[in-house]
Every structure is written in C-alpha cells, then in structure tokens.
Design the sequence.
C-alpha cells in the first residue's frame, strides 16, 4: 500500500489529540476507539511507514468510516482524515485486497449497473413528464433502488410547478458509490465519464440526491471530467420555484426540524435553501448539531455491510431530535430518510422536503 506524499503528511501530522473524537457518528454509535479518525490515522500511519502490513483488520477499519467529514471540520490542525481514508480504499483495490462485502457490491454494479443489485422500478421513469426537455431530473442510485416512492413524489412536485423535465429509464450511475468504495480508481472515473456524456445532452440537471450533486460538482471538476450541463441540487431548485411563485406554498402550523445532509452542508456548503422551503411551509426548530455541524443519520452503502451500526447512528440522531422536542424531522437525502425511517421512534414524524411542500400546496 503506497500513500501519496500529501496523505502521508496528513497521517503523520495527526496529533492524535482526540479533539475530533466526540464528533464521529460511527465512533459514537459503536463506542469503539477504532472508529475514530485518530485510531484510523494511527493504524494507517504504521502501514505508511511499513511498520505493519496492510492487514484485513486495518482495511475493514477503513471501510467503517462514513467519509462524512465531521472530523475534518473539527480538526484543530487542519488535517483531513477523509482524504487518507479514500486513498487507503483505492490502495486496497489496487493491491487486490478489497473485502468480500465490497467486492459483492462492485459485482452487483457490474451486473446490474447499481451496487444494490436491484432491477429498475418502471414507475420512476413513468414519473418523468417529457422525453424531450432540456432539464434532466436525476434520481440517483439510492432513491431509485431503495426509496422509489420518494423520487416519484419529488417528480410530482416538479410537475405541479410546471417544470418540463425528463427522467431517464436507463439513467447512468453518477459514480458516487464507486468513489465511496474505491476512490479515484480508473473504474470510478470511467463510470463518471459515461455519466457526464449523457448529462451533457441537457442544459440543466436537477439532482434529487445530494450525493450525486456532490460528485458532479466536485469530483468531476477535480478529475477534469467535462460536464456542460448546469447541476442544481433539488433543494436549491425547489427553493427557487417557491421564490419565483411557481410553487404557491401556504404556511401551515407544522413545525419542521431539518436533518442537514453533510453532503450539502459541508461538501457543497448549501444550508439555507432547505430552511427557506420549510419556513415557507411552517416554522423551523433546529437540532443542536445543525448546518455544517450536522451529524450523519445514515448511509445506505454502509448499511449493506454494517446495518446494525447504521441503525445505531440513526437512533443517535433521533435522540438529538427528541432533545429539542422536534415534531417532524425533514431529510434531504434518500439514504438518511431510509435509515431514519426504519429506526423511527413513536411520537415524532419523518418527512422528505417534497412531502413537506406537497402538504402545504
Ligand atoms: S469522516 Fe466521519 S465517519 Fe469518518 S472518522 Fe471522520 S467523523 Fe468519523
Ligand atoms: S484528525 Fe485532527 S482533531 Fe482528530 S486527532 Fe488528528 S489532529 Fe486531532
């Protein structure tokens, strides 16, 4: 396993100071020291110095990170654990040491075009209004294969606003899940290039899932993958529809508590459109860890190989919501919606952004 000089610098410079220890959603859920950025840096720094082999245990530990960036934000010395985790995953792939549970997801991808190994739900493509428009509504792998009803409702909302859009039956994969599993491998870049070719036929791409918007706006750019279309997040787009009067929302007496996705709040620095939408629909009560300080509430890729831990992560977030007497938690991503839904306690509601808006039209 060879690390880049930049990653080695970040590994070696980690002070093992514990300042990011309390912020890791996985470490908090498991209570295990190995699930902290500090412990992972310690293991990988020994691998980088050839003091220990890149063993199965260290590799498994690398796949226990959600790459949520909470530790990056918190790091007092500016070191980036996400960067070396992604490089360590790439290294495992290049060394032929990927764990079986990751190989299984990659095989699913190669066979079915999605890591969940599921078939397309024809109801999703039927939700697209026009095959000829210059606006593509990009559903993404998580919603398409795990929460299709959410995608159908989101499309319904766009139709109510009079948006002329297309949903593809054979939507390409954005490359987010491959990037999560094996980082900047040639396979990941090739998936992204194929996707960019399709997206470039459109003027605007509205990403339902922030995970797809994140790779299109960040990784495509960083890796020189040309994309002519303008990429917008679903929340940014819907907020614009309300501001322009294309969606006439009536203020209700509902009170919403946003679950900020780290992909939007930290990676894309988008925090206010969701609040603008929810404030138009009712009132907003914040959790203590909000906006850039948000805490992950679930990851569907990790749920494939550490489902119990993902449930514990979501239950921790429900505790945060209950602590502020939240009535209705509103999510921005299909992954967080799916895992919060299966762990939802009694007496508190869960909604997507589109559900909240549809209730207030
Ligand atoms: S990126 Fe997130 S999951 Fe990974 S170590 Fe940092 S806080 Fe924990
Ligand atoms: S990543 Fe930063 S905050 Fe966390 S232990 Fe290392 S130096 Fe400290």
Sequence:
């Amino acid at each position: 396993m060879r690390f880049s000089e930049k990653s080695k610098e970040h590994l070696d410079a980690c002070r093992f100071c514990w300042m990011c220890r309390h912020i890791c959603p996985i470490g908090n859920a498991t209570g295990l020291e190995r699930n902290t950025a500090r412990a992972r840096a310690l293991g990988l720094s020994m691998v980088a110095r050839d003091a220990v082999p890149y063993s199965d245990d260290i590799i498994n530990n690398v796949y226990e990170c959600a790459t949520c960036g909470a530790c990056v934000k918190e790091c007092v010395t500016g070191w980036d654990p996400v960067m070396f985790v992604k490089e360590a995953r790439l290294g495992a792939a290049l060394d032929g040491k990927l764990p079986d549970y990751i190989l299984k997801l990659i095989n699913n991808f190669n066979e079915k075009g999605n890591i969940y190994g599921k078939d397309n739900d024809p109801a999703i493509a039927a939700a697209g209004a026009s095959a000829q428009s210059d606006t593509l509504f990009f559903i993404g792998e998580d919603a398409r294969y795990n929460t299709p009803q959410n995608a159908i409702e989101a499309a319904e909302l766009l139709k109510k606003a009079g948006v002329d859009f297309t949903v593809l039956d054979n939507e390409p994969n954005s490359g987010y899940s491959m990037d999560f599993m094996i980082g900047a491998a040639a396979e990941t870049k090739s998936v992204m290039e194929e996707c960019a070719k399709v997206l470039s036929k459109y003027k605007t791409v509205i990403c339902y899932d922030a995970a797809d918007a994140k790779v299109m706006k960040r990784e495509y750019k960083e890796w020189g993958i040309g994309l002519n279309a303008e990429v917008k997040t679903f929340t940014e787009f819907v907020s614009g529809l309300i501001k322009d009067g294309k969606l006439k929302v009536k203020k209700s007496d509902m009170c919403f508590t946003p679950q900020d996705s780290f992909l939007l709040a930290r990676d894309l620095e988008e925090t206010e459109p969701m609040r603008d939408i929810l404030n138009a629909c009712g009132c907003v009560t914040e959790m203590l860890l909000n906006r850039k300080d948000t805490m992950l509430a679930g990851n569907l890729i990790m749920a494939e190989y550490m489902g119990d831990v993902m449930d514990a992560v979501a239950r921790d977030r429900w505790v945060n919501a209950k602590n502020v007497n939240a009535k209705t938690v509103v999510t921005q991503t299909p992954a967080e919606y799916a895992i919060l839904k299966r762990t939802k306690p009694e007496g508190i509601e869960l909604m997507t952004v589109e559900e909240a808006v549809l209730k207030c039209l």
